[in-house]
Specification:
By secondary structure, the protein is α+β, with helices and mostly antiparallel strands. It is 59% helix and 13% strand. The chain has three domains: 103 residues, no CATH class; 69 residues, Orthogonal Bundle (Helix Hairpins), CATH 1.10.287.130; 150 residues, Heat Shock Protein 90 (2-Layer Sandwich), CATH 3.30.565. The structure holds adenosine-5'-triphosphate and magnesium ion.
Length: 351
């Protein structure tokens, strides 16, 4: 049997009309024609009333809910539009509840899909990056085992190459560990006051030899005013400067220049790492902070890069509520800069 609004209203109206007529027939002196008229009136009035209530207030809303549930089952969540209903109808609330629940679930599903895609891509990238140094070291060790070990010259050369590949592997694993620890919040920032100028001097000292090999002028442009005190995590900011200076030297051709300088503001100190290197095309600029992203994969791999340096920089700076800015012109050079809050220290002079 089909329970439509019409059938139900007909049945109800019919029963009401019969009951009313029967009651009236018990009253003395009521004529047959009057009974008939009363029956017809009560039938039509009850039919109209019940039909309107059932059809417009209940059945229509329930159908909407059914349709929505059908879509939910078919996972066509994005196709669901917000339902409009009369303010009088209590079922409209249920409808709205289901709608907001569905949109919430859709958001969660989208997020999970994105994470899943990211996870797959990440595993593919990591395995690819691990494969290269492992494969190289494996090759050298096997060649040695196959007899090259007896030749003293070749032995040292191959062992050195294997060691270099394993060092690269170690660097890569360390970078990955740092990234994941920062992301999971296992590494807490240890904020303290320190002199940014001294930190940069120390980093530059470490890179002097590397810069000399490429005849690159590596300089720190800062006077001795003691205005460079900042409040940040010393170890992590050292890592940031390390990565930025290392990139600047790596991606600057021989005889170029790399300068580290400062811009002292009222509240913040901006540190700038400026190079006269190859630059980064505008189309790549927004992606260079992604993990494993390299502008020229083959060339930066030659330089030993895995594309993790700037991802680490981004995460560390996010932990300091700041971010790295880049300006770059292909063939002219790049400027990487970031701000840190200044803290007044000894030797501080008025601005
Ligand atoms: N100063 C720069 N000049 C030109 N290109 C740069 C510079 N810094 C970064 N890049 C580009 O951005 C990419 C990402 O840099 P990032 O430091 O994250 O990775 P990497 O240097 O390739 O490897 P890693 O730092 O992990 O050893 C580099 O591969 C390079 O193409
Ligand atoms: Mg790098």
């Amino acid at each position: 049997m089909v329970y439509s609004a019409r059938t139900l209203s007909l049945l109800l109206a019919f029963s009401i009309a019969i009951v009313t007529t029967l009651f009236l027939s018990l009253v003395e002196g009521v004529e047959r024609s009057a009974l008939f008229v009363a029956g017809v009136i009560s039938f039509s009035a009850s039919y109209l009333l019940t039909f309107v209530i059932l059809e417009f207030l209940i059945f229509r809303e329930i159908n909407k809910i059914y349709k929505m549930i059908g879509k939910l089952k078919k996972k066509e969540l994005s196709g669901i539009a917000k339902q409009k209903g009369g303010a009088l109808n209590p079922l409209e609330k249920i409808n709205e509840e289901i709608f907001s629940f569905a949109t919430l679930k859709q958001k969660e599903i989208d997020e999970l899909r994105k994470l899943e895609a990211f996870r797959k891509e990440f595993i593919a990238d990591v395995s690819h990056e691990l494969k290269t140094p492992i494969f190289a070291a494996q090759g050298f060790v096997h060649t040695l085992l196959d007899g090259a070990v007896n030749d003293k010259n070749v032995r040292t050369k191959f062992l050195k190459k294997a060691a270099k590949s394993l060092d690269g592997l170690d660097d890569l694993v360390q970078d990955l560990l740092t990234l994941s620890q920062i992301e999971t919040g296992d590494i807490k920032m240890h904020f303290e006051q320190f002199d940014m100028r001294k930190l940069c001097e120390e980093v530059i000292e470490q890179f002097e030899e590397k810069a000399e090999r490429k005849k690159i002028k590596l300089r720190l442009l800062a006077d001795n005013h003691g205005k460079y005190n900042v409040y940040a995590d010393y170890k992590r900011i050292t890592q940031v400067i390390n990565n930025l200076v290392s990139n600047a030297i790596n991606y600057t051709p021989d005889e170029g220049e790399v300068n580290v300088s400062f811009d002292v503001g009222k509240k913040n100190l901006t540190t700038l790492v400026v190079d006269t290197g190859e630059g980064i095309p505008a189309s790549h600029l927004h992606r260079i902070f992604e993990r494993f992203y390299r502008v020229d994969k083959s060339r930066s791999r030659e330089k030993g890069g895995t594309g993790l340096g700037l991802a680490i920089v981004k995460h560390i700076l996010e932990g300091h509520n700041t971010k790295a800015e880049v300006q770059s012109t292909v063939g002219v050079g790049s400027v990487f800069s970031f701000k840190l809050p200044r803290s007044k220290g000894e030797g501080e002079q008025a601005d």
